[in-house]
Each structure stands twice: as structure tokens, then as C-alpha cells.
């Protein structure tokens, strides 16, 4: 069967399973589409509550055989049933837009995590715990591999919570879709593990954990991995040469503490000894407690002692930290500054 008829078959299969939203979703034609490597994202509304939704139109056509169509629809049905505070809800599928398969999910007002952390007042640590817990849910409960974990596939809710999106899409595309002429090669090589380079991108739990480590680095530096290597071929060679080096620029060093660098290192071990994401998530929660103003490195506290003009917020519940800061900075320190002050997040 030619590819132009495959969406029609998928629409019927999706209708039979209750995930076809063609008659319930309307595209907002006033919204400028967002173009990505594998999809175009439109804004839409889901009736009857007029819920704002993202319509991710894949730049791929599904193979037309019946078993493959069933596989795609059943995967989307599985995603629709996922429920976790760090997973973007999927509502279903539409096939009426651009004659392609489009996945309908909840719209997140604050965009993706990479753009979000460009605001220097944003603390990446709560986001990273959210990401780890979301990935833990996918691995341990849903038995789903993400396959394309990076900060641009993490969306931010109104209340600043991080939610994983595009989970499972990369493996599904690889197994069930044909690339269209307009679809470029996916620009995700910078997050690949060394074993994926050798196995042509095979997705595993261990590869997801490696990508989580790269996402940690990405959110702390506010730059893509290997940002200083523009040529993709050289990036591949660098990945095969070993894990990334620890950043040396002062702005990153003051935030990326020894504890967080240890977490990165656990994610970048050899595949056979790489930590599970559940262990990583527990370590994040128990060591560098990812809450605003609740974990400061000694190096940063010392830095404060040389800048008495800074407005510093002390965590009143942490007596030891307050005493140490008072000793280093002196009695002129202010204690009435809100905890979202840009200088106390790191």
C-alpha cells in the first residue's frame, strides 16, 4: 500500500481503539508553527472543554501494513494511559493535518527546559529531579524507553514543574515509519552514548541514563553538549573518546558542584556498570537536595563573603548554614530577601 493511504488506515484503527481525535481537535491557525527535527508542532484546542493542546505532526509516514498500523495505535494508546506528574499527558492522535500522523498532548505554556534555564534566575536542580523521576516512571512502571532524552524534550508547566515529552517516539519512528523528503536527520547525536554509536543508535535503559547525564550538563551550562565542537563527525569521535570533561568556566563551576558532577559520572560509566535511573533519582533527592535555596556549595558561600553588597536569602530552617554564612559574611547580611533572588539559586 502506498504511504498516502497509511494515515487513513491508522485513523480507522485509532477510531476503533478510541484514540482518534480528528473530530475533537481544532488547529489554531493564528499560531506560528514550531519546527523541530522530526515534527512540526501546532497549537490547537480539544473540545468540549476547549483545552489547549500541542499537535505534534510527525515528518514521517507509517508503513502501510496492518500489523504495523496496529502497533503504532497501540503504542499511542499506552502513552495515553500514563499518569505521572513528570510526564506530559498524551490525549490521542489526529490524521487530518498535513496528511500525516499527529500526536495530541497537553500544551505547556512555559516551553522547553533548555529555553527556560536561559533565564539565569532559574534553578535547574528541581527540574533535574523531576526529569529523573519521570524517566524512572517510564523505565520501572511503564516499561518504556524514552530514546530521545534532552532538555528540549522536557517541557515546563505553569508551576515550574518539568515533564518529559516525546517518550517512545524515537524507537517507534525507527521501527514503524518511513522518512519523508522534508524530514532531516535527527540532531540528537550529542546525547548518544558510546555504545549507541557502535550499535547505530539502539535505544536501551542504559542509553537513556547516559542521556540524562548529558541533560544535567546541558541545564547547568545552559549550552548543548560539546557546544564547542560544531562538526557532528568530530562530536562522534569525541563521544567515543570518553565522557565529557568537567566544565572549567567560573559561572558553571559555581553551580555544578562535586555532588552534581558525581551524578554525571554515574550516568557516564561503562554500559555494564551504569547506574539505574532509580538510583540516580534517589541520590539527587538525598544529596544535593534540589530545592530553592536549600543546597549551597562551600565555594559559593565563600564567594559571598567577598561581596557584601549581595542581597542574600538565608534559609531560616537551616541553622548550620545560617551560622556559617553569618560567620563568613558578617552581620550586615540581609535575611529578608525572597528565595527566588537570582544570586541564591546556585
Please describe the structure with a list of short key phrases separated by commas or semicolons.
346 residues; alpha+beta; Phosphorylase Kinase, domain 1; Transferase(Phosphotransferase), domain 1; six-stranded antiparallel β-sheet; two-stranded antiparallel sheet; 13 helices; 38% helix; globular; Protein kinase domain-containing protein; Ser-Thr/Tyr_kinase_cat_dom; Prot_kinase_dom; ATP binding; protein serine/threonine kinase activity
Topology of this protein?
Layout: H1 6-17, E1 25-27, E2 34-35, E3 39-46, E4 51-58, E5 60-62, H2 66-80, E6 90-94, E7 102-106, H3 113-116, H4 124-142, E8 154-156, E9 162-164, H5 169-176, E10 177-179, H6 194-198, H7 205-221, H8 232-240, H9 250-253, H10 258-267, H11 277-286, H12 298-305, H13 319-329
Antiparallel strand pairs: 1-3, 2-3, 3-4, 4-7, 5-10, 6-7, 8-9
Helix pairs in contact: 1-2, 4-7, 4-11, 7-10, 10-11, 12-13
How many H/I helices?
Answer: 13
Low-confidence stretches: 176-185, 289-346
Q: Largest sheet, if any?
A: 6 strands, antiparallel
Helix share bin: 25-40%
User: What do we call the CATH topology of the largest domain?
Assistant: Transferase(Phosphotransferase), domain 1
What is the molecular shape? Answer: globular
The first-level CATH class name of the largest domain: Mainly Alpha
* CATH superfamily grouping of the largest domain: Transferase(Phosphotransferase) domain 1
- Can you name the CATH architecture of the largest domain? Orthogonal Bundle
Using only CA atoms, what is the Rg?
22 Å
Intertermini distance:
56 Å
Count of individual domains: 3
The secondary-structure element order is: HEEEEEHEEHHEEHEHHHHHHHH
Structural class: alpha+beta
The fraction of residues assigned to DSSP E strands is: 5-15%
The mean pLDDT is 78
Q: Can you count the beta strands?
A: 10
